[in-house]
């Protein structure tokens, strides 16, 4: 009688894909569990007597067409969520870029000039505390059109963290660096590119990461109160006026996901430009 030998595991079974999956699984498990618990609690509360908000099951049932067909375009403001979000992102990209250019420039000016700092700091501290929604009526009154008014609201909201962090970064340049620049007799151009920008860059990126989140928040606030423009903010307001609560909840999920991706994008760009030791 022969004795059946045990089959040895196939070495090829433990491939690189499974190894990567095993490494990622511990990091993925906690958020998956947290999201599952949140959805379960949300669903349970939606079943309570007198509940007014739909649960996740009803949200999917009510909005499955929007989920499956995000690219539809019937003209005007009747567009899928992809086009609504894309329109908002375009506004954010334009205003955020302008805010970065102006904010970094003014931040460097304030950081290098004590006179300009004393002159402009009170004005900037006053303006930066104004909420985004408060800028909407004044921007509409001044610009008379929804599109430039929305761009201005994003710009004026996003510029302050960039400006302030840049100014702080310039002021925090070690005195040893300035002494070396004087000994080497560096020109203003050489000092700017070889000392000032590298030393202030970690602070600048901190401001840029904060500003991208504020810019995304500002465009939602601006579009909600501006009628007749394509954008995820106006989509929420239109859904509210038509009592489509499920569409509002779906839009909020997309807004949160896009905001998270924007922050991760800025963090990734920061890792490409700055060495790990200089990242804040």
Number of strands: 0
The span between the termini is 71 Å
**Structural class, judged by helices and strands?**
mainly alpha
- What is the chain-wise order of helices and strands? HHHHHHHHHH
Residues in β-strands, percent: under 5%
Averaged pLDDT:
84
Backbone CA Rg: 26 Å
Instruction: Please bin the fraction of helical residues.
Output: over 70%
Q: Write down the overall geometry.
A: globular
Give a quick account of the main beta sheet: strands, pairing sense, barrel closure: none
Give descriptors for this structure.
mainly alpha, globular, 280 residues
Task: Give a verbal description of the structure.
This protein is mainly α and 280 residues long. It is built from ten helices and no strands. The protein is globular. The relative contact order is 0.11. The model is unreliable at 1-7 (pLDDT under 50).
Layout of helices and strands:
Layout: H1 16-46, H2 56-68, H3 81-112, H4 114-128, H5 132-143, H6 146-171, H7 175-184, H8 188-224, H9 232-241, H10 245-273
